[in-house]
Design goal:
Structural class: alpha+beta
Shape: globular
Strand content: 5-15%
Order of helices and strands: EEHEEEHEHHHHHHHHHEHEHEEEHHH
Largest sheet: 5 strands, mixed
Number of helices: 16
Radius of gyration: 25 Å
Strand order of the largest sheet: 2-1-5-3-4
Number of strands: 11
Amino acid sequence: MAAMVKLRIIFSENDSRRLILPNGMPESVSELVQQIKGQCGVNGDFRLQFMDAEFGNEFTNLESMSDIQDKSTIKVIFSSVAPVEPGEPLLPLYSSAATSRTLDDSSSLSSPGNSFDTDILSSPESTSSRATAWPDVFPIPRFSYDTQLQLDRANATFKETGALLNPDHKIKSAILDGLAETIVQYKVYLSDREFDEVAEALVTTHPCLKEPGSVTGYGGWKTSLKYKLANYRTKLRRLGCPDVTVNSLKHKPDGKCTPAYGVKKPKKAEVNYCPTYPAGETAETLEEIRVDLLSEVKKKNNDHRVAAMMEKTFALRRQEVVREAPMIADFKMRWPALFHVCETAAVEVRRECILKGLCVYLNEDPEKLVKDYLDVDKSIATAIAETVFGICVIRSEGAEPGDDPQDVMIVLEGVEVMGELGNVAFAVAMLLGLVYSLNLSYPPELRYTFEVLQKILMELDAHKLSNKVQVLKTLLSR
């Protein structure tokens, strides 16, 4: 496993940031450019220069990754066209093709031969859909022209004399507005840790804004940001943003109509938790497509059309899952294509052993995840009906360990939702995808196993780990 790499990225005289590469140094300069665009939120064309020790640490154009190493200093040189307009937030630059299937495409967890018709958390063409998960380093936007000008001057003064800026109400409001507009490009509900990350990134980018007497230097900014984002959510609620309206009081159960009760928000690093409908579409038009899907999914050689229709109706399906939390059996009847697999590919048996061994290492029972039955067992039907969450494997009596099972199925709430999956490893990948697609919670008896799958293998919301999983991650990184 490649060691983590940190680089110092200089954007201007008063703007330098750290770039963290958890998977090691990229193989090419173009890949490094994409990392900078993604983590630092930079749009536009630019080239890179590195601090060349052979020429007195002067900056030289970066043409080969062999010229830099861990903790090298990189300078961003923008083209003659400005990357952003004054006051425009820096948007993470991701192509829709690369990110439209973030999290929702379980094929990323399976072998190359696997294909299926569904998208677990894909992002359709709606302009309000999000393209990327919460960044490792929060990108501070460029603020309005006058605000940015004052900050640049104050940063220069701080560098020379150490004097801090005492922002007036107008500057502070402009800063908070800019931060809120950038935050909602990722999510509308932040954890306490994420508020810390935003506030810390602010005073790191603009050290003149550090607060004297504060332990962290940004405690006041963090508090103000919480109030600003709450007010911003109120504005979004009036505009009908589904991420916010899903938590309106009229959607709360009788007797529990309080703002704090049952807040629905991403808990497993979902990118598009409750997206809006695609432009020009309504609940009625998307429902018509869903009805057409019921017949289209039965046709042969129709995978591309079904996939396009599933992508088109993603927002409808996702809002139904989040708002109504339907029973699995009912949801399968409404959306059969979501549970359809075209093929599977052979996977070595040791992958199944590794998954079961992971459960054992984490002091969890692997039989809570994978249940094995012989085809001669007459109690299979009863056992499946009593299974709330898991994978059932049916093997032939007398079969060798390397023989393919008769069937590998996913069972949720006593219903076989997917079958003929071929092997346990692929079934686990599909199960993880269904957890996201159906907005399910991880079973408590397998919480650590799924934490490893999500946060270590998929690297989703990997900032905070339980002690048990952190120990495993440390051992794996050696």
